[in-house]
Amino acid sequence: MGRTLAEKVWDDHVVTRAEGEPDLLFIDLHLLHEVTSPQAFDGLRKAGREVRRTDLTLATEDHNTPTLDIDKPIADPVSRTQLETLRKNCADFGVRLHPLGDVEQGVVHVVGPQLGLTQPGTTVVCGDSHTSTHGAFGALAFGIGTSQVEHVLATQTLPLAPFKTMAVTVNGELPADVTAKDLILAIIARIGTGGGQGYVIEYRGEAIEKLSMEARMTICNMSIEAGARAGMIAPDETTFAYVQGREHAPEGEEWDAAVAYWKTLRTDADAVYDHEVVIEADELAPFVTWGTNPGQGAPLSASVPDPASFADESAKLAAERALEYMGLAAGQPLREVPVDTVFVGSCTNGRIEDLRSAAQVLDGRRVSGDVRMLVVPGSVRVALQAVEEGLDKVFTSAGAEWRHAGCSMCLGMNPDQLDPGERAASTSNRNFEGRQGKGGRTHLVSPQVAAATAVLGRLSSPSDLADAHETAGVR
Amino acid sequence: MEAFTTHTGRVAPLRRSNVDTDQIIPAHWLKKVTRDGFEGGLFEAWRKDPEFVLNQEAYQGATVLVAGEDFGTGSSREHAVWALQNYGFKAVISPRFADIFRGNSLKNGLLTVVLPQETVERLWELVEADPATEVTVDLQERVVRAPGVEASFELDENSRWRLLEGLDDISLTLKNEDAIAAYESSRATFKPRTLA
Ligand code: SF4
Q1: pLDDT tens for residues A126-173?
Q2: How does pLDDT run along chain B (196 residues), one tens digit per residue?
């Protein structure tokens, strides 16, 4: 019987296999950041162990780093200690690190692909659940805990029980105003935050094949929000073109050998998935969340749902709690929800294409006087590219703040946070209670919706701007 | 890792589904560089509410947490497991756990037990009627016992053995050192490297 993409990559990394035991898998790339690694390095020290493969390991600083005044010492002493700990650990163990101020610094999941380290058919792990992002290249990439970080540092392997496979096939073409973010939010709303539990999801179908690498990363990034261990997309010409010429991409004969291998990484026609979901692209529309988990979403044109409309008792309770926390009432049109803050950034939507599309909407417009808008590039390289294209000027002349690269308000470990009760439209991936700051309320949106929302001061899509404009003209 | 064989203790009934890791331990706690001292951060936002289950006198000293489905969703932070353990929990029962959380908990000797929603409801009702009710989580027999409840649960044999023995994964893996070295020497040369 044929094999799926995920099974092929898995099989190619099995170091040992024995009945009744998990497979021992080899890890091609181990990414580190300051938050989930200190206790792992400590463990190595206590046991007198080394990092087995420093040449397959890379660290960057992202979660705690400030996005203003980055040349000054970090104000929060605890954040500073954590970054200093990473620097010491990397120096002691010989691990390559891109610290704050370095041109390759940025959110770990933006940095790996950008350097050409994330390649098709590799296994990629990081002590971070959004490692699923790298699956956009046809890599088997998943988040791990700190004990596993220590395990990979010491052995370059992980004992793992096999995953189940799920296909999410997206037929047809996405409507012009629908982005990868809308698509993945709609997928999560469909399968639920636990629906992917135990699965590796492979996204396929015409609509997926047409997506750019950036858009594919947005999709795979949020696989974890459906509970899946990983998301994957089969590598194709779009993938190869993205990787080619990057710093760590193979060259010459090595490139040819790599591509020949990468081309084998497609699910066989007779392979069987454990579960299949089919989505019709042309039925989709801009999508936003109204609740406190990423599965609680609806089309922007809809209204806040009535908890009583959920058949399932626990979904009903969860919706009630969510509306209370979010300060929303059932039946309220989503387009009428006013926001205080707009955040464009994160490993979901902090890449150059995301900034371009937000800038395109903002160009020649003004951020509403009641709204603070933060634009935080996913990496220093993304920031430099954006400056070269003049995007930073578009943002600042519209009245948005142009910040330094990092995770920033995605999780508010640095000073970029929501105040209690503040409401944000955010291009990040989690709308959990307090995620962006204690008591803060988050609506997950695409970069286009974020930008339009900033202009009108309420949840909106770019098409609402055109309407608003015409209405103003008539007046 | 601490071995887990069987544990008997009182229960904290957490009637919530989708308890994400940001609720279990908020991000600002993750700046610590140790594995201990996280108990104060456990469910920090919810603990501000005097009615919250962990604030009720009756549930002080509970060592088994019984929660709704999709417990531990969200981030990979192992700090969530450490916070539960630092606080005193030995086992968590839920109809469904997020994968990474479950993996992390088993690596630290915090037993995560999957029981059907109906059984979880029964346990909630039991302890809410009498908070002194004790529950036994028996890993030898793979069964949870409470007055009028005897529910078996699944855990793969390998994970069970590691827990019962309190084994260190890294030492186990390093027994395969030769196989790892053999794999390394046959890896394709086009695979990426982070160092020149
Ligand atoms: S941008 Fe957000 S989701 Fe991504 S790694 Fe940083 S904190 Fe995690």
Answers
A1: 999 999 999 999 999 999 999 999 999 999 999 999 999 999 999 999
A2: 778 999 999 999 999 999 999 999 999 999 999 999 999 999 999 999 999 999 999 999 999 999 999 999 999 999 999 999 999 999 999 999 999 999 999 999 999 999 999 999 999 999 999 999 999 999 999 999 999 999 999 999 999 999 999 998 999 999 999 999 999 999 999 999 999 7
Give the ligand 1 atom nearest the CA of A108.
Answer: 5
Q: What is the DSSP string of A290-332?
A: -SSSTT-EEETTSBPPPGGG-SSHHHHHHHHHHHHHHT--TT-
The ipTM of this complex is: 0.94
Q: At A97, which helix (H) or strand (E)?
A: strand A96-98
A33 touches chain B (CB under 8 A): no
Instruction: Return the axis-axis angle of helices A77-93 and A38-47, rounded to nearest 10°.
Output: 40
Residue B36 contacts residue B95 (beta carbons within 8 Å) = no
Dist. CA A472 → ligand 1 center (Å): 39
Give, for ligand 1, the residue of A217, A346, A354 to mutate: max count of ligand atoms closer than 8 Å to Cβ: A346
Q: Which residues line ligand 1 (CB under 6 A)?
A: A 62-63, 107, 109, 128, 130, 346-347, 407, 410-411, 428-429
Q: Give the tokens for residue A321.
A: 């709690």
- Distance, CA of A191 to CA of A304 (rounded, Å): 19
